[in-house]
Amino acid sequence: MPSLATLPPLATPHLLASLPSLPPYLPSLVLNSPYKFMLPTAIAVSTCCQLCGIGGAALFSPIFLLLFPLLGLSLPSPSAAIASALLTEVFGFSSGLVGFTARGLVDWRVAGQFLAVTLPTALVGARLAGSLAAFPTLLRVAYAALMLSLSLFLIFTSPNPERAAEIAAQCELPLEESTTVRSLVDSQGNAYAYLPPKTGDAVGTAATAFGGLLTGILGVGAGEVILPQLVKGCCMPLPPAAGTSVAVVVLTAFTAATVQFLELAKNTGGGVTGVIPWELVCYTIPGVLIGGQLAPLVASRGLVSDENIEKFAAGLFASVSLAFIVKIAVGG
Hints:
The protein is 70% helix and 2% strand. The chain is mostly helical. It has one domain. The chain has a two-stranded antiparallel sheet with strand order 1-2. Strand 1 and strand 2 (191-194) form a beta hairpin. The two termini are 33 Å apart. It is found in: Membrane.
């Protein structure tokens, strides 16, 4: 998932209107919710994750699965925790998508090529998520591996703006007439030229499918495999690459979250609104929307260097991985 140093700060309060019909008892839940601390937590998580280009679900799920039990809190099931993390992530990155779309930095044709792979694999992953959640040890092993992988991703391969600029400087578009070169002009009149995704690329398709599957199961993966393909494989400059990647991630995560909540509703015999933990998401969703605006502000002001952000996030993910390993070792 892209670094949002290029994300234009654009308030998006109307996103809240897309929530399902709220239960009539929500005001009481909000006032009496033990999850009030999740508002500042969500702001911090969203700001940090979006600055380093990682989906917020990467940290929200561990918070729900590891931290909540230590605080005497719990969600109905591990499946509910993962689905809630995905739902929160959707709103956080939708804030960014609105900004990118308004500025003409999304190539929807290219996004559609990736979505043709990520949507069905995310749907499969979301259907498998419930089965995985039924085996707590297996779920912890999966998260430990994911957190460690994200830590290594940030250290060695994350295409932040500086690295993307270096890659772009070395990436030359072929001049042969037979080569198709796509172009995009943003709302400011800036023109970008790049190659379309390769057709018949088995390695790229497999990586995209795996990213979609991981997003469906654990909430993270699609952006981490798509953005490098756009920047390196398509020679796409970072602004449209970030916007196009965000579009794919948002729609993929939304699909996964919807399927997971539908599965939860089916298993409980109730409606979707009945399985959404409103007392939690009424704090996490506003938090990630705020974080989505703070991230580009922090980046544009240069308050924290990209290198320090990535070092901090890499250490954080490594620590979370260690926490899961300890949980696996001690059991319970």
